[in-house]
TrEMBL record:
Domains (record comment): The IMP cyclohydrolase activity resides in the N-terminal region.
Family: Belongs to the PurH family.
Protein name listed in UniProt: Bifunctional purine biosynthesis protein PurH
MF GO annotations: IMP cyclohydrolase activity; phosphoribosylaminoimidazolecarboxamide formyltransferase activity
Keywords from the UniProt entry: Hydrolase, Multifunctional enzyme, Purine biosynthesis, Transferase
C-alpha cells in the first residue's frame, strides 16, 4: 500500500481525487481541515497527529513539520541505509504529496489588510513538504495544482509516471514556491531596490511570435496585476494582440493617462504618438488627433479617454486601424466598428492613474529597474527666461506641447498648439535634426502660425532656437540645464521669441 499526504487550503476537487486514490489502494494521511472534508465524505484517513505523535499546535503553525513526515518524503528508496533508518524509526515512506498553500496573494490583495494578518497567511509546512517531495521526485510525486488531479490519476492508472514527467512536476513545485516566496519578500521589503530582485509573473498568453516572425514570445502578467494595464483590457472584438500591438498599446495607455482633464484622443504608431487631440467632445478630439498626422495613423492604434459615439466611430471606420481602446462604446458605435473583422476593440476604464511602480527593461546579462516617469509639468512649474513673455494662449500651448513631448522617443521635439500636436521629430541621434523634422511636418498645418515648440531635453547650443525662430516658431519650452543655456536665451532675445524653462527632463529611450 502506498501513502499519500493531503494538506490543501483550496479544497476544490480533493474529495473526488482522494476517492480515486483510495481506489488505487493509497492510504490517506491528512491535516485538520482537509481531514475533516475527507472524513465527512466517508473516506478512510489517518490524522497527521497520529503520524507525528504530536498534536497540531501553535494555531496550525506546526502540523507537518516533523521528521516522521520529512524523513518519509526524503528517504532515498534506492539506498538500503536510508530504508534501514526508516525501519529503525518506524517511519512509513510517503509516495504522493498533495498540497496547496495558504492564499498569501489573495490575502494581501484585500484592502486594509494588516501585516499580522498577512504574516499568518505565510505557509511554512506546505512549501517544506512540497520541496522535500520535489527533491525526491524520483520516488515521491508532489501535486500542487487541483487542475492536475485528473492527469495524475490517469498517470497512476496507466503506470505512466516516468522520470521526465515526475521531474516536470518537481520543477512546477520549485517555480511555484519561488513565486510564492517572491511575493512575500516583495511584500515585506523595506527597500524599493532590494539586493536580490525576485519578480513574480504568471503566464498571460502565448503570442503568435515576438517583434518579428522568427522570434518566439509569451506575455506574462504581474502576480499582482495592475488594473490600468493593457493586460487587464477587455478584448470585446477581434483577435488576440500581438507582441508589437501590446507594446504599442501599452505606450498609448501611458500617454493618454497624462491627458485626463478633457476628452482626448491619441493615435500611435511604433511607440510614438502620431497625433494627440484634445477638445470639448470626443469627436473633435479625434478629428484633431487624426489631422495631426493623417498618414502615420494608417494601421495604427487609437486610444480615447471618453465613450466612443457613433459619429466618432463612423469617422474611425473610414481608416485602417489595428486597435481602438476606450472606456466604453455606445451600442451603435460598437456595431459600426465591429463590422471590421480584424479591428480589435478594447475596453478599459480610465479612472485609475498609472500606479507608481517600477519599470524593468533588459540589457544583455541583466535588467535595469527605475521609477516610472509620472511627472507632468503645469504652467506654474515654468520659468520664463526670455525678455518676451508668453501670451495666455502660448502658455496653454506650451503646457500641452510639453506633456506631449514627454512621450516621444528622444531626441524628441514636438510642435503643437493647445489641444493638437502638429509635428514631431522623434528618435534622431541629434536634436537639431528632430527640430527640423518636427517643424517641416508642422508647417503643412493651418494652425502652424500659432505653434509653439517643446523639447524633451535641453538644447546643447543655440542652433535649435535659431532654426525654430527662423521658421516661424514664437515660443519654446525646454528643461534648461545646459552649460550653454545662456546662448539659447540670448538667441531667443535677439530673435524676439519666448523661451521657457520647464526644469524637468523627459528622456525616453
Ligand atoms: N504548519 C504546518 O506544519 C503546515 N503543514 C501544512 N500546512 C498547510 O496547511 C494547509 C491545510 O490545512 P488544513 O488541512 O488544516 O485545512 C495547507 O495549505 C498546507 O500547506 C501547514 N501550515 C502552515 O505552515
Amino acid at each position: 500500500m502506498q501513502r499519500a499526504l493531503l494538506s490543501v487550503s483550496d479544497k476544490t476537487g480533493i474529495v473526488e481525487f482522494a476517492t480515486e486514490l483510495v481506489a488505487l489502494d493509497f492510504e490517506l494521511v491528512s491535516t485538520g481541515g482537509t481531514l475533516k472534508v475527507l472524513a465527512q465524505a466517508g473516506l478512510p484517513v489517518v490524522a497527521i497527529d497520529d503520524v507525528t505523535g504530536f498534536p497540531e499546535m501553535l494555531d496550525g503553525r506546526v502540523k507537518t513539520l516533523h521528521p516522521r513526515v520529512h524523513a518519509g518524503l526524503l528517504a532515498r528508496r534506492d539506498l538500503p541505509a536510508h530504508m534501514q533508518t526508516l525501519a529503525e524509526h518506524q517511519i512509513t515512506p510517503i509516495d504522493l504529496v498533495v498540497v496547496n498553500l495558504y492564499p498569501f496573494k489573495e490575502t494581501i490583495k484585500q484592502p486594509d489588510i494588516k501585516l499580522a494578518q498577512a504574516i499568518e497567511q505565510i505557509d511554512i509546512g506546505g512549501p517544506s513538504m512540497l520541496r522535500s517531495a520535489a527533491k525526491n521526485y524520483v520516488s515521491v510525486l508532489p501535486v500542487i495544482d487541483p487542475t492536475d488531479y485528473e492527469k495524475v490519476l490517469e498517470l497512476l492508472h496507466t503506470d505512466g509516471l516516468t522520470n521526465p514527467i515526475r521531474k516536470a512536476f518537481a520543477a512546477k513545485v520549485f517555480a511555484h514556491t519561488a513565486a510564492y516566496d517572491s511575493l512575500i519578500a516583495t511584500y515585506l521589503a523595506e527597500t524599493e531596490f532590494p539586493e536580490k530582485l525576485t519578480l513574480s509573473y504568471e503566464k498571460f498568453a502565448n503570442l503568435r511570435y515576438g517583434e518579428n516572425s522568427h522570434q518566439q514570445a509569451t506575455a506574462y502578467r504581474s502576480a499582482m496585476p495592475e488594473a490600468y494595464s493593457i493586460l487587464s483590457a477587455d478584448i470585446m472584438h477581434g483577435k488576440q494582440l500581438s507582441y508589437n500591438n501590446l507594446r504599442d498599446a501599452d505606450t498609448a495607455l501611458r500617454i493618454i493617462a497624462d491627458f485626463t482633464d478633457q476628452p482626448t484622443v491619441v493615435t500611435l504608431k511604433h511607440m510614438n504618438p502620431a497625433g494627440i487631440g484634445q477638445a470639448d467632445t470626443i469627436y473633435d478630439a479625434w478629428d484633431k488627433a487624426f489631422k495631426a498626422d493623417d498618414i502615420s495613423i494608417f494601421g495604427g492604434i487609437v486610444v480615447l479617454n471618453r465613450e466612443v459615439d457613433l459619429k466618432t466611430a463612423q469617422a474611425m471606420h473610414q481608416i485602417f486601424l489595428e486597435i481602438i481602446i476606450a472606456p466604453s462604446y455606445t451600442p451603435e458605435a460598437y456595431a459600426e466598428l465591429a463590422k471590421k473583422k480584424n479591428l480589435r476593440l478594447l475596453k478599459l476604464p480610465f479612472a485609475q492613474p498609472i500606479a507608481p511602480m517600477k519599470d524593468v527593461v533588459s540589457v544583455l546579462g541583466g535588467v535595469l529597474v527605475q521609477d516610472r516617469d509620472l511627472e507632468t509639468e503645469r504652467a506654474s512649474d515654468f520659468t520664463v527666461v526670455s525678455e518676451k513673455q508668453p501670451t495666455a494662449d502660448q502658455l496653454a500651448s506650451l503646457v500641452f506641447a510639453q506633456k506631449a513631448v514627454k512621450h516621444v522617443k528622444s531626441n524628441a521635439i514636438m510642435v503643437a498648439v493647445a489641444g493638437q500636436t502638429l509635428g514631431m521629430g522623434a528618435g534622431q541621434p541629434n536634436r537639431i535634426d528632430s527640430v527640423k523634422m518636427a517643424i517641416q511636418k508642422a508647417q503643412t498645418k493651418v494652425a502652424f502660425k500659432e505653434a509653439v515648440l517643446a523639447s524633451d531635453a535641453f538644447f546643447p547650443m543655440a542652433d535649435s532656437v535659431a532654426y525654430a525662430a527662423a521658421h516661424g516658431i514664437q515660443a519654446i519650452v525646454e528643461p534648461g540645464g545646459s552649460i550653454k543655456d545662456q546662448a539659447s536665451i540670448d538667441k531667443a532675445n535677439e530673435l524676439g521669441i519666448v523661451l521657457v524653462f520647464s526644469k524637468t527632463r523627459h528622456f525616453k529611450h
